[in-house]
């Protein structure tokens, strides 16, 4: 799951995750982040480097 | 000592405040005739002493999701909640002596069954005027047959106890830059050197277009061969940048921060007066 807040500055970034993943399929990821108001590089890396593990883990419950 | 205090009072100028940018979540404010110390105290209060309402205790009745109970509790704690300071007290200042009553606690429930993405907006609050500030924060993705049922208790708290209570995000300040250009030969080296692109050539001299954007990097000063440009900072003018996590609007946050600061100052005054 995407962390709720940026580890470094504490800005809430979880809420833009779905829009970010959807839009970055067709658009440039950097431009999408700019558009979503994620300006600092600490917040940008949260979204850019996130790996979604829920689908991989769920069969092993 | 008395004379010193009086001199300070005479030299005191009322500060001027201008909002350059003010939205719900973000603000950039320029304060004139002030000191770094004052703005820093305001900044520190915004980070650590403005109370916010946040989930603090979670009773989990059923959790068959992929995350552990503790991780879900952590995620719930980080969700900002719209805070109404008038209706809630800090537990340690409450009339119940921190035991927990409706004046210092708020109960929230979350009951969901998969398959579904659980959002912060699915949390049901016992007080309709207090709710998660952003309804679109994903908490957990539930697959087929997975369930989550919990009760959470939110309390007011201070950022110095735990970062989840921190109301201000990325608060910072800098002095306004004072760039002086004398005997410029309009060679344009400084225009190239400026990473913020705020220097322009006009006729026979370089001109600064927007001193607010200057980061005081002094690259223009280094680049200039004839030392025509000097970058200095005006210590009486401070540019304060801050963001709110959503529990308050940016305006409410700075007003609340100044209230806290004022209260601290008056407590100090009261204590000093009783000493005599």
Automatic annotation (TrEMBL), chain A:
Gene3D superfamilies: Homeodomain-like
Cofactor binding: number and manner: Binds 1 zinc ion.
Membership in a protein family: Belongs to the archaeal Rpo10/eukaryotic RPB10 RNA polymerase subunit family.
Species classification: Archaea, Methanobacteriati, Methanobacteriota, Stenosarchaea group, Methanomicrobia
Pfam families: RNA_pol_N
Reaction(s) catalysed by this chain's protein: RNA(n) + a ribonucleoside 5'-triphosphate = RNA(n+1) + diphosphate
Residue ranges crossing the lipid bilayer per the database entry: none
Localization: Cytoplasm
GO MF: DNA binding; DNA-directed RNA polymerase activity; zinc ion binding
Role noted for this protein: DNA-dependent RNA polymerase (RNAP) catalyzes the transcription of DNA into RNA using the four ribonucleoside triphosphates as substrates.
Keyword entries, A-Z: Cytoplasm, DNA-directed RNA polymerase, Metal-binding, Nucleotidyltransferase, Transcription, Transferase, Zinc
One annotated GO biological process: DNA-templated transcription
Enzyme Commission numbers on file: 2.7.7.6
Cofactor: Zn(2+)
Gene name for this UniProt entry: rpo10
Binding residues for Zn(2+): 6, 9, 42-43
A GO-annotated cellular component: DNA-directed RNA polymerase complex
Domain of life, source organism: Archaea
Stated name of the protein: DNA-directed RNA polymerase subunit Rpo10
Subunit text: Part of the RNA polymerase complex.
TrEMBL record, chain B:
A Gene Ontology molecular function term of the record: protein dimerization activity
GO cellular component, one term: cytoplasm
A Pfam family of this chain: RNA_pol_L
Enzyme class at the top of the EC tree: transferase
Cofactor: [3Fe-4S] cluster
Catalytic activity, reaction form: RNA(n) + a ribonucleoside 5'-triphosphate = RNA(n+1) + diphosphate
Entry's localization field: Cytoplasm
Annotated ranges, domain 4Fe-4S ferredoxin-type: 175-204, 205-234
Family listed: Belongs to the archaeal Rpo3/eukaryotic RPB3 RNA polymerase subunit family.
Name of the protein in its database record: DNA-directed RNA polymerase subunit Rpo3
Native source species: Candidatus Argoarchaeum ethanivorans
Phylogenetic classification of the source organism: Archaea, Methanobacteriati, Methanobacteriota, Stenosarchaea group, Methanomicrobia
Record gene name: rpo3
């Amino acid at each position: 799951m995407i962390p709720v807040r940026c580890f470094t500055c504490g800005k809430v970034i979880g809420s833009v995750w779905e829009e970010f993943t959807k839009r970055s399929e067709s658009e440039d990821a950097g431009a999408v982040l700019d558009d979503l108001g994620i300006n600092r590089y600490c917040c940008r890396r949260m979204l850019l480097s996130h790996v979604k593990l829920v689908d991989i883990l769920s069969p092993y419950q | 000592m008395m004379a010193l205090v009086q001199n300070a009072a005479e030299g005191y100028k009322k500060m001027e405040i201008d909002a350059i940018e003010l939205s719900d979540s973000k603000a950039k404010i320029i304060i004139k005739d002030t000191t770094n110390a004052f703005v820093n105290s305001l900044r520190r209060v915004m980070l650590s002493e403005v109370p916010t309402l946040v989930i603090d205790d979670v009773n989990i009745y059923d959790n068959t999701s992929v995350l552990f109970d503790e991780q879900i509790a952590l995620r719930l704690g980080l969700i900002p909640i719209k805070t109404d300071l008038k209706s809630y007290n800090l537990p340690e200042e409450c009339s119940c002596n921190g035991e927990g009553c409706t004046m210092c606690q708020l109960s929230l429930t979350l009951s969901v069954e998969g398959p579904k993405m659980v959002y912060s907006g699915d949390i049901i609050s016992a007080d309709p005027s207090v709710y998660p500030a952003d309804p679109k924060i994903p908490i957990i993705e539930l697959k087929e047959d997975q369930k989550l049922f919990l009760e959470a208790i939110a309390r007011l708290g201070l950022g110095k106890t735990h970062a989840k209570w921190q109301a201000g995000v990325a608060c910072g300040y800098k002095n306004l830059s004072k760039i002086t250009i004398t005997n410029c030969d309009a060679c344009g080296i400084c225009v190239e050197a400026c990473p913020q692109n705020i220097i322009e050539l006009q006729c026979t001299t370089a001109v600064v277009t927007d001193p607010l954007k200057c980061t005081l990097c002094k690259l223009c000063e280094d680049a200039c061969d004839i030392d025509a440009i000097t970058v200095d900072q005006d210590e009486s003018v401070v540019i304060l940048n801050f963001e709110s996590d959503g529990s308050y609007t940016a305006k409410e946050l700075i007003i609340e921060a100044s209230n806290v600061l004022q209260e601290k100052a008056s407590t100090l005054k009261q204590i000093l007066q009783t000493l005599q």
